[in-house]
Amino acid sequence: MSLPIRRTGLNRETPFFFLCSQCLLCCRHKKIQVNPYEVARLAANRGLSTAGFIDRYTHDSGTVLNWEEDGACVFLDARGCGVHPDRPLVCRLYPLGRHVLASGEETFSEIEPDQDCKGVYSDNGVITAYLDAQGARPFMDAADKYLDLLWKLCHILEEEAAEPEKQNAIVSVIQNFAGGERHGDIGFADVDAIAAAFCEKLNISIPESIDDKMLIHIQAVEAWANNSERRQDHETKKTRQITAKGSRKKPRHESH
After folding, report:
1. Residue 152 CB coordination number (10 Å)
2. Per-residue model confidence as pLDDT tens digits over 187-215
3. Are 32 and 65 in contact (CB under 8 A)?
4. What is the chain's Cα-based Rg?
5. How many CB atoms lie within 10 A of CB 227?
6. Which has more pLDDT, 153 or 24?
């Protein structure tokens, strides 16, 4: 499902305009990856909990939307996108792609359109105007927050992996997080359950807005990473090593 790229290295002021004609070709044969914020938006749209949505509409533990046997998106119906007000960022950006480095540098690429795409292209506009027209800003902000969380997790795991044998643990945990590693008995994409458990722990009310719930979810995952069994075990091992070294030292006797 890789898509051919027409242009790269674009920015928000690059001339660009695209008018969708609702031919719906872009809703077929695409792998739509979603982050926890998008899962929460789509779950609310369907009137489901995030756990219920993940179970019914996704695979890879809530990170990829399902598609039908003919390759159509699971939300494509006779009228078009059945979740259009809450569609994921990748759908809002099409035919653009957005790329963000660890430094925060942002670029865009333009995807080659589907062969029979009926959309209208021109240079009568700029990318930033297209983003606004598609309501992409909240979704880009959420994507950036989760990317920042990922970098924090990498940093935490690097601290834990000072010993060579722990290097594989870094790769494994990051891959599992991206693909839906579980937070205890709860999948990481299950925003509702994780936010509820964290709020209960802090004795605070669960926020009603999805944006506020996302912030709680991010705090909870970061707290889990900082206090994980892996981290505790590593600290315990270090403490034991220090204690063992200390116990091997001969006692000092002062003469008077």
Report:
1. 15
2. 889 999 999 999 999 999 999 999 999 99
3. yes
4. 23
5. 10
6. 24
